[in-house]
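thread: overnight batch results

M.L. [08:02]
morning all. the overnight job finished for the chain we discussed friday. pasting input first so we're all looking at the same thing
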Amino acid sequence: MGNVTNVPKLLNNAVATSSREYSSAALTAEGKVVAWGDNSHHQTNVPSGLSNAVAISVGGGQDLALRADGTVAAWGTSAFPVELTNAIAIAAGYSHGLALLGDGHVFGWGLYTNTPASLSNAVAIAAGENHNLVLRERMEL
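M.L. [08:03]
and the structure it wrote out:
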C-alpha cells in the first residue's frame, strides 16, 4: 500500500484536497488532479487527459473530478461511466457517486444510489461509504 501521508514532491499550487482511508488527491490551480497513496483500486491512476477540473472527491473504489464544463470524470475499480453536462458538485462514496445538477436534482450511479426521482431543490450533497446525504433548500410555506 502507498502511504497517504507521502505527498508528491512536485505537487504545487494545490487549491483543494480530498481523501478517504488510504488514498488522497489534490486539485491544482491549473485544473489538474494529482493522487497518491494506496492504489489497490486504481484510484491513483488519474486519467492522463483530465484537465480543467474545478472539484475533486475521493471515494473508496473510485475517485471523481468535476470539470469546468459540468462533465464528470471517474476512475478506479468501481468507476462507472458518467455522462453529465450540467453538474455543479460531486461526491464519491465507496463504490458509488453523486452529482448535484444545476437544476437542483441529484444524479447517482453505482451502489447505494436509490435517488428518488422527485428529489429536487438540492443545494449540497455528501457520500459516505454506503449512504448519501442531500441538503435541500428550505421551502417557505
